[in-house]
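#struct-help
A.M.: can someone run this one for me? Single chain, 182 residues.
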Amino acid sequence: MATKIRLQRHGRKGYAYYHIVIADSRAPRDGKFVENLGSYNPNTNPATVELNFERALYWLQAGAQPTDTARNILSGEGVLLKKHLLEGVKKGAFDEAEAEKRFAAWKTSKTSTTQKAKDQVAAQKADNAKKRLEAEVEKNKAKEAELAKKKAEALAAEEAAAREAIEAEKAAETTEEPAAEA
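D.P.: on it. Structure tokens below:
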């Protein structure tokens, strides 16, 4: 049986996530599979991969051929490197302790790189939120200034109307006083 390590699509339109499976190469994409190795979600930043490392390594050593995308995912998780190192041990290029040491060094550098990317995304989100808040504060200050200006104009208009009313009363009183003296 020719087995493949490939992705099985799930999710809704425009928001796909994938199961990483071992399947017969003749089976349909979303059809029957031998074993589920994990999942891959490209919708998160960075993409989320959950993988049963030991089983993926076993299937690669057993001769399962990964598709191009599955190969990239397995490479990113270090399965292909581990297989390569184990083959070096079989050939006698170095011992198993050296292989584990090399893999551990690669894993720490990969983890630090991934963490830096996550931190950068988080910092960018925080920066964007801060900028949006500052823009909203500026917009609110502009609205407050405009509202205060309108209130001041309305108050000035009321005061002017009140002064005109008082002046009109005084004018009416002055016109009434001379008429009353005569």
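A.M.: thanks! The chain has a mean pLDDT of 91.
D.P.: also worth noting: The radius of gyration is 38 Å.
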